[in-house]
Design a protein that fits this description.
4 helices; about 20% strand; 2 domains; four-stranded antiparallel beta sheet; about 30% helix
């Protein structure tokens, strides 16, 4: 779903999905309102990168945080992992910058499930992005 929003270039949806998290981070880093207002423009620039090529989700591990209440898909640190990817988000795309050098943008996504929705059955698990 997150990748699809990037492919659709839906900057409003991306900002809405990330705004609360970005606001918390900005507050903890004592960012000014002016810096926070630049958030939409920053996401817009990333979304509008031309010729993004999302990479397949493979060779990742499911990592848990917060006593198992938060999950993310990330590259592991085993010997077979590309050292540039170790510990990075498994959701990423590649693109060429102005100098035509190949670059990657990793989109860290953290997931959770509201405890009131947990039925105890694995097949009923519906994870949501942390907002």
């Amino acid at each position: 779903m997150y990748q699809k929003k990037y492919e659709e270039k839906d900057v409003n949806a991306i900002v809405n999905l990330n705004y609360n998290n970005a606001l918390r981070n900005a507050t903890t880093q004592y960012k000014s309102k002016k810096q926070l207002n630049g958030l939409w423009e920053e996401y817009n620039n990333v979304i509008n990168i031309k010729d993004k090529e999302f990479q397949p989700l493979k060779d990742y591990e499911l990592a848990f945080f917060g006593d198992g209440k938060i999950a993310t898909l990330k590259f592991g640190s085993n010997i077979n992992t590309d050292p540039r990817h170790r510990g990075a988000s498994a959701l990423f795309f590649t693109f060429r910058n102005k100098e035509e050098r190949l670059r990657a943008r990793f989109l860290g996504v953290y997931l959770y499930m509201d405890k009131d929705n947990y039925t105890g059955k694995d097949e009923d698990i519906q994870l949501e992005m942390i907002k």
